[in-house]
Amino acid sequence: MEEILKNMEEDKKNRIINSALEEFSKNSFEKASTNNIVKKAGISKGLLFHYFNSKHELFHKLEEYVIHLITNTIRKQMDWSGSDLVERFKQISLIKIKLMNHYPYIYDFSLELLKKGSIEELKGRYEEDFADLMVKVYQENIDYTLFKEGIDLQKVVRIIQWTLEKIGEESFEKLKQSGERIDLEMLQKDVEDYLDILKKAFYKVQNEEESHD
Amino acid sequence: MEEILKNMEEDKKNRIINSALEEFSKNSFEKASTNNIVKKAGISKGLLFHYFNSKHELFHKLEEYVIHLITNTIRKQMDWSGSDLVERFKQISLIKIKLMNHYPYIYDFSLELLKKGSIEELKGRYEEDFADLMVKVYQENIDYTLFKEGIDLQKVVRIIQWTLEKIGEESFEKLKQSGERIDLEMLQKDVEDYLDILKKAFYKVQNEEESHD
DNA sequence: ATACCATTGACCGAAATGGTCAATACGAAT
DNA sequence: ATTCGTATTGACCATTTCGGTCAATGGTAT
Questions:
Q1: Are A24 and A59 in contact (CB under 8 A)?
Q2: Cα(B93)–Cα(B110) distance, integer angstroms
Q3: A201 vs A107, B128, B158, CA distance in Å?
Q4: Nucleotides on strand D with an atom closer than 7 A to protein CB?
Q5: Which pTM value belongs to this model?
Q6: A188 φ, ψ to 5°?
Q7: Which among B151, B162, B194 has the least Cβ separation from residue A166?
Q8: How many helices (H) and strands (E) would you count in chain B?
Q9: What is the pLDDT of residues B136-162, one digit of tens each?
Q10: Which residue is nearest to nucleotide D22 (CA to C1')?
Q11: Is B147 helix (H, G, I), strand (E, B) or coil?
């Protein structure tokens, strides 16, 4: 994707990527229309097929690009030194939402990929990539003794993840309806509020002194 | 819907409803195909247009039917006497999932309705209906002093709702992939486990004596 | 002026679209 | 058996849309 469009001006490139992401997110592969994609991207039909020889290749290159972008961004922008799982989740969710400001449909698109699977050859590769990253997120240097004892750790972790996912989904709905960019500061505050509640609920009681005024 | 198909044998009626729900859930109205609907329902094209004069009418009657079915089922099957909000949520979520066993795509379909809106005339009517029901759920006879003091009640309630929604979405994914009906007993156990965790986290500490062996 | 790549949009045959309708199948009543 | 009426069929229609092609054009650097 990057190599294919490397000489194209940034703005046009983004329009193509975003238009394709939107069309493939809203429709199944078969019903997604290349006519719609070029119309929304503001380019001619010929140009799209000049760069991507077929609808299949476009989709294939797009999913490759998206998987690579998401996993690499997380890998690079995360602070891997901390041992607090919730903080790690928070970082991931903020990274995703920042990506969404640039590529509004990237999250929806990647969710569809994970649900429906994709071209087999690629699927193996990126699922492995994702799986590796997730193992790293959950296990590398994480201190699980922060959680209260006697609770179902697996379920609690899922509650926390689900909450973050829902916050993300809500932001996306807002973005779609208003068209304005997401207010990252407000969102960060929101995420932190929710995670504070969840930490207070599921982490061992902390030293009150540290948070004293 | 019910009146239109009243003389039809139950099985064929369900096949039509479920096929239409599926097609309209997976595709936007425009891209949904009446050819697909009749194929999956196992009926002829002519028959569908004999009962519903147009694709628009089919969709319209379908949404009317679904909204009515969901709200009425909740209204009737709920135990409105309790004052525990979490228990009320639990009931709603189990009712929804039971409906999903009969109409697998009813939940997806209704979500799309709420997101995208629908035909204007109907929209006003059923949104009001939904809103009324929700007010009843949240306010009629609910004891909010069960929650711990000093927490952000609104956010806590949303965490609980989101958790139930995610459990429902997961059940639906399983249903789609396996095709088997949902094991309601296992699911109920699951819902209760999660809600126990959330209650312990957000409700005031209860008398331990009652749960003593 | 020449060479070269980016870009266009009219055009293609094929497929799918929502909807129609004359023809049947079939059970009940006579 | 025959008639009647309704439930149901599927071939058929005009129209649109599909993915993809390609000769032509524009613009830029040499």
A1: yes
A2: 14
A3: 29, 35, 15
A4: 7-12, 17-23
A5: 0.88
A6: -60, -45
A7: B162
A8: 9, 0
A9: 999 999 999 999 999 999 999 999 999
A10: A46
A11: strand
